[in-house]
Amino acid sequence: MTGDARQRFVDPQMQWSEEQYDYIHPDCVISHPPVLQYGGTKNGPAGMKSIIDGLAANFELHVEKVETQLFGDDLVVQRFLGATFVNRKSGRRATMNVVEIYRFDDGLCVEQDNFYKSPEIVAEMIAEAGYVAP
């Protein structure tokens, strides 16, 4: 896979867009911290969409800075610095850094690991919002 295709997938303008799902392999494994209501693993574009739709319905996300690094021909590490989650229901805010690691094969994302600096705070905010995991 070319660096350009990987960069397109992780482009901040592409985040949470329908087009992003075209880059996800049907068997992609998406992992989040187990403490989160949507934690553990989900699979494929449908798994990613269920997470994103639930988060977008309950939270606004503002990011101060995104750093993206490509490694070899299959890995991307993305750091979201100063990621602020805003609970749409309560207005509560929490700011932390988030790291996502993506692995690609044949032009598609086959694995995504997500790491939150303070996942327990996000879990509290999710509970406050009344979010129910799919």
From TrEMBL:
Under the heading Pfam families, the entry gives: SnoaL_2 (PF12680)
Show where the SnoaL-like domain sits: 22-111
- Domain of life, source organism: Bacteria
Q: Which InterPro entries match?
A: NTF2-like_dom_sf, SnoaL-like
From the Swiss-Prot or TrEMBL record, give the protein name. SnoaL-like domain-containing protein
Report the source organism. Answer: Trujillonella endophytica
